[in-house]
Automatic annotation (TrEMBL):
This is tRNA-(Ms[2]io[6]A)-hydroxylase. SUPFAM superfamilies: Ferritin-like (SSF47240). One of its GO terms (biological process) is tRNA modification. The lineage of its organism: Bacteria, Pseudomonadati, Bacteroidota, Flavobacteriia, Flavobacteriales. It comes from Flavobacterium weaverense. GO terms for molecular function: tRNA 2-(methylsulfanyl)-N(6)-isopentenyladenosine(37) hydroxylase activity. Coiled coil: none annotated. Pfam families: MiaE.
């Protein structure tokens, strides 16, 4: 369904398990950024009522996920660390087209968002199937399902609002680009790292 070409090596989970506090802190900040991204889409496209409605739902869900991660951090006697840069997301951001019409730019922003959700969903699946901690396995399985829904929403809106963009062709370009950069990641105890 996600169309990703390069799967995460399950051994990445061994790295994650070596520093649960780091993965949970990184994950918390990923949720915060995802909520902020949805709000940004609202800010720049406030006239698109259906989009605004759905982005507000996603923003709330992402904030709920942030709260869930924070509660999990506290329950494990850990501390939410400082915000981290997400180099993977920053590389994807540079690939996003910022020219053309407002709707063309919106379409690419939605595809950028879909790509992040797709990879997060894939990583959460790997965690849910390979992590030894049963609580974390269930936690990541539940979040994987949510991320898949967000991915579908972003792709659907990209198709709806595309004016001059062949969304399927552009999505394939996103997949190819993501494949070219993801090879550098999967070596750190971060969601995309």
């Amino acid at each position: 369904m996600l169309g990703l070409k390069l799967a995460t090596d399950p051994r990445w989970v061994n790295i994650v398990e070596s520093n649960i506090e780091e993965i949970l802190t990184d994950h918390a900040w990923c949720e915060q950024k995802a909520a902020s991204n949805a709000i940004s889409i609202v800010t720049y496209n406030s006239e698109l009522e259906e989009l605004v409605t759905e982005m507000l739902i996603i923003a709330k869900e992402e904030l709920d996920h942030l709260q869930l991660v924070h509660e999990l951090i506290k329950s494990k006697g850990l501390t939410l660390g400082r915000e981290r840069k997400d180099h993977y997301v920053n590389e994807l951001f540079k690939f996003m087209k910022k020219d053309g019409s407002r709707k063309d730019a919106l379409c690419d922003r939605l595809l950028f968002s879909a790509m992040i959700e797709a990879r997060s969903c894939e990583r959460f699946k790997v965690l849910s199937e390979n992590i030894k901690d049963a609580e974390l396995a269930k936690f990541y399985r539940d979040l994987m399902i949510s991320e898949a829904g967000h991915y579908t929403t972003f792709i659907g809106f990209a198709r709806k609002y595309a004016d001059n963009v062949d969304v399927d062709k552009r999505w394939q370009e996103w997949i190819e680009f993501e494949t070219s950069i993801i090879v550098k990641y999967g070596k750190n105890e971060t969601v995309h790292g």
